[in-house]
């Protein structure tokens, strides 16, 4: 199981995403004897083994998080009384919603657009800086797949360490190499491979040769990258280092991800200086549309509700004045009171005010006749407050689509729209013209496009794989 492929059924050791809701997705590595405790109950990992990915799994205990061993696997597959989760296979899209944010991250709407514009595909060789929380790293890694290679750089120590562990745990170290480096100062050449990115048997071999260090430079590696993604504060300092590590026989694509327009201006200036063409800045603004039901309210009901409020208010005021009068008489028997009456005619009271204390107070404003006309009155629970003529369940918890009301299907945009994330500056570096197309005076002697792939021998590219010994592979 990995971000590249997964089995149909969960196995021990799998990375599984426990979906509680959109803002609560918990990654877990399925380990016998361990239990996931959530506000929706407890989920022993043992009960997840053998479950099909995508299944809704019921908890084995209540929300208290206790463990009900007796119910065990029998509760699997269906939501129990306590609660449930969905067990999902990891994808970069879900991962970006579930990961622990160490930095700002690239979200899927930007990520998918950038991957497309950078022409990243299986087999691509991509440079990324900085790694940050690893959100985009996962998207790039999946896209380049096992035939491609991703080199990602992070200069912040703890973030590098965390990303390193994640890359190994998530199985994307198949094609991803993280280097601890300030790319603005030192560039991208000779990335390093940390031992945690190596399979165990290679570590043993290196140990036998007494060659184990924490990180080993990948000597002589020609990165031959064809796509670059820079998500760091000063991309203009990293751009000059790129010429040495790009595959100059083909077009190279770059994207600088910058929140401020000043950063864009400086990046554009530097891109021009270093020969990048077709420079373009884009901002992605994604809106999600959702289907909903909206309650249908008739004008007649609205008018009746206003009348009811007015009637109840007048009655409430009358009762209040009666009470004050009673208290006044009592006060006069005991001493004096200066309290004044509140106007009690319909003309004197504002018709729209629903919050007059007496209007909502059944004890004082008890309006038997109007209460009888209330459609929902008989449905109210013992503790529910009487709210007058209330054809729309105002003040109650109404589920969308509640059959006591009429509804209209509508679509609307999600309430929380993320506005600006970053400006995306794209550019292309044209390939270097092969020398054989020029004569000695530098004049172009052929305008025929020559494919470098088919031109002579296939180019050889060193790929960092199992150890610091170069492995020659054929580039695609
Ligand atoms: C906004 S975060 C990247 C987030 C990442 N794209 C993601 O989706 O999770 C920027 C990262 O770049 C790193 N960084 C900044 N300047 C750098 C440099 N010169 N070399 C390497 N990393 C750098 C920072 O430490 C930070 O972790």
From TrEMBL:
List GO molecular-function terms, semicolon-separated. tRNA (adenine(58)-N1)-methyltransferase activity
Q: Which InterPro entries match?
A: SAM-dependent_MTases_sf, TRM61_C, tRNA_MeTrfase_Gcd14
Main location as per UniProt: nucleus
EC numbers listed for it are: 2.1.1.220
**Composition-biased stretches (Polar residues):** 331-347
Q: Where is this region: Disordered?
A: 325-395
Keyword check for Transferase: yes
Q: Its domain of life?
A: Eukaryota
The entry's keywords: Methyltransferase, Nucleus, S-adenosyl-L-methionine, Transferase, tRNA processing
Compartments, record wording: Nucleus
Name a Pfam family for this protein: GCD14
Cellular component terms, GO, for this chain's entry? nucleus; tRNA (m1A) methyltransferase complex
Which ranges carry the tRNA (adenine(58)-N(1))-methyltransferase catalytic subunit TRM61 C-terminal domain?
83-190, 219-428
What is a biological process (GO) this protein takes part in? tRNA methylation
* Protein name, entry field: tRNA (adenine(58)-N(1))-methyltransferase catalytic subunit TRM61
From which source organism is this entry? Magnusiomyces paraingens
